[in-house]
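Continuing the series of single-chain predictions for the mutant panel. This is the parent chain; the variants come on the following pages.
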Amino acid sequence: MRQLVYSAGPAYRPAEDMQDLAAVIRPLLHVKTGKDARVRLGSGLFDVVITGGGTHTQSAVAEMDEIQSGCGPVIEDPDSGWQYWLVPPGSRSKWEPHEYGVCLGAPHTVTLPSLNRTAPPGPYWLRPSASDRLVPLHPLRRLLTELRPQPTPHASLAAALSITTP
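Parent structure:
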């Protein structure tokens, strides 16, 4: 059998992009099996909008529940006071600067909590990840403008990512 495989030549070798695909899928499997996982953004899965957490964004999540018949995935991090909204891939390139939210894509990463973590301590799924939806960018942007969630993440993210701000 091995002789037949090798005689196939280049056709038997995995596609070059399969390693990239495996690098994307492997962390997601960790999340599903009860482990936290660091996932790179901009990999065709999702980007992330980071906002303040607390009561203001609870209202935004409730409104997104109505808009989407169940809000797309949102991670709450009570330690930092932030929420992470998983938005469609490529959103970073469409996101205009916003006073109450920052959108990140490649080359950044985000740590996804285990899917079974739905309460503190630590980051948890305020709205669990569903395979059929992400948070739509334009309604989220509108809600952030209306609700003005605090604290705004800009200065903290700039310091953490070594970005200079004007």
